[in-house]
Design brief:
Elements: H1 2-6, E1 10-12, E2 15-19, E3 29-33, E4 41-45, E5 51-55, E6 66-69, E7 75-77, E8 93-98, E9 104-109, E10 112-117, E11 121-124, E12 133-139, E13 145-151, E14 160-165, E15 170-172, E16 190-195, E17 201-206, E18 215-220, E19 225-228, E20 231-234, E21 239-242, E22 247-250, E23 254-255, E24 261-270, E25 273-282, E26 287-290, E27 300-304, E28 310-314, E29 322-327, E30 330-333, H2 334-342, H3 346-350
Antiparallel strand pairs: 1-2, 2-3, 4-5, 5-6, 6-7, 8-9, 9-10, 10-11, 12-13, 13-14, 14-15, 16-17, 17-18, 18-19, 20-21, 22-24, 23-24, 24-25, 25-26, 27-28, 28-29, 29-30
């Protein structure tokens, strides 16, 4: 895994590592950085690793929505107005995901879910009856489907999950979605957070504003069924039982590029201690594995590759993190891998003080 990681093309929070081509042996990673003055953060990346989208709320030349060509580092500012109407300027416009060809993005425009192409400009996606504002949070790489959420107003806590067909710009029904929190109550909060590349599987959560009540689930569109992650559900009693002792709730779930795995962190309460620790979930079998060794505590697992290898950052609740990857039974620090495999000092080459956190992983495992 160490060789795979460091012969990859990596993109992470405004910097990336790119290997030089080689005939024999592993390539040396070439570290490049995005020097944006407004603190722009990368929000997502195309499945093939060729495009990224970024956003920042601060005013300035580089503010708001951007699409980045990861091969060159060049970026394009997304327009802050509808196509052909430069007078209707908005301050809320950004993309959350981008297609493999870089031609379409989904996100938010004027506080509404929207899709963008250069030919059409921003187009508002429809909201279910009784709902209005919202955003599109992810899309399939072939521009077929997008997921997102809608709410009554930007300040409300009630949400409904939405799936759109991007060919018809219409809502696709998702029957039999869960509505209950881990406490067994319906708090009128259902959110989609991820979709598989083929559009079959969707991950989401309920009751996300009350710590300890959030229920994370995977939804199978083909069978119109759902399963909680890390818990067993008794439909008759409307109760959830943790599959591993001590699990209070699942913090998040992120697909591997091939959708065979989900990875994230679980919040544990036991022996008078509380902490986050990583887990992974095998989609075909439903097998749930919690990594509860002491050295795994306080790691936020964010990405998982097609082989089920977790990547994340620590400390969990800090923005100043160290990048870690799990191989077998061990976690490896990115800076140590640079030094041990290539004799490179990550900090000297990048100019950063921390290795940061992974954000997204390409389908071939060569871009993070």
């Amino acid at each position: 895994m160490r060789k795979v990681l460091l012969t990859a093309f990596l993109l992470c929070m405004g910097m990336w590592w790119c290997p030089r081509s080689y005939a024999q042996g592993p390539a040396s990673p070439e570290i490049c950085t995005l020097r944006l003055s407004d603190g722009t953060l990368v929000l997502g990346m195309s499945d093939n690793g060729q495009w990224a989208v970024a956003y920042n709320e601060n005013d300035g030349e580089d503010s708001h929505g951007k699409v980045i060509n990861t091969s060159t580092g060049e970026y394009t500012l997304l327009p802050n107005h509808p196509k052909g109407d430069e007078t209707s300027i908005t301050t809320t416009y950004y993309a959350t995901d981008v297609s493999d060809d870089g031609a379409m993005m989904v996100g938010c425009f004027q506080d509404y879910p929207a899709a963008y192409t250069e030919a059409t400009g921003w187009r508002q996606l429809p909201s279910p009856a009784g709902w209005g504002y919202g955003l599109a949070s992810a899309m399939t790489p072939d521009k077929r489907f997008a997921i997102g959420r809608c709410y009554i107003s930007p300040s409300t806590q009630n949400e409904t999950a939405v799936l759109w067909d991007l060919n018809t710009m219409a809502i696709v029904e998702t029957p039999n979605l869960p509505t209950l929190s881990l406490s067994g109550e319906n708090e009128d909060q259902v959110r989609f957070t991820g979709i598989s590349a083929d559009g079959r599987y969707i991950v989401g959560c309920t009751s996300f504003t009350t710590m300890g009540y959030t229920m994370v689930f995977i939804y199978d569109r083909e069978n119109e069924t759902w399963q909680p992650i890390g818990f067993d559900y008794d439909a008759d009693g409307k109760t959830f039982t943790p599959q591993v002792e001590g699990i209070s709730f699942i913090d998040q779930a992120n697909f591997s590029p091939n959708a065979e795995w989900l990875g994230g962190s679980a919040y544990i309460v036991k022996d008078e201690t509380e902490y986050y620790t990583p887990y992974r979930y095998h989609v075909p079998t439903g097998e749930f594995t919690l990594y509860d060794e002491t050295e795994s505590h306080d790691i936020q697992a964010i990405c998982i590759d097609n082989d089920g290898c977790l990547m994340g950052g620590t400390p969990h609740d800090s923005q100043l993190r160290s990048f870690l990857v799990r191989s077998g039974n061990y976690w490896f620090a990115l800076d140590n891998l640079f030094q041990q495999c290539y004799g490179m000092d990550f900090y000297d080459h990048s100019g950063f003080e921390y290795t940061g956190s992974p954000i997204a992983l390409s389908v071939d495992g060569r871009a993070i």
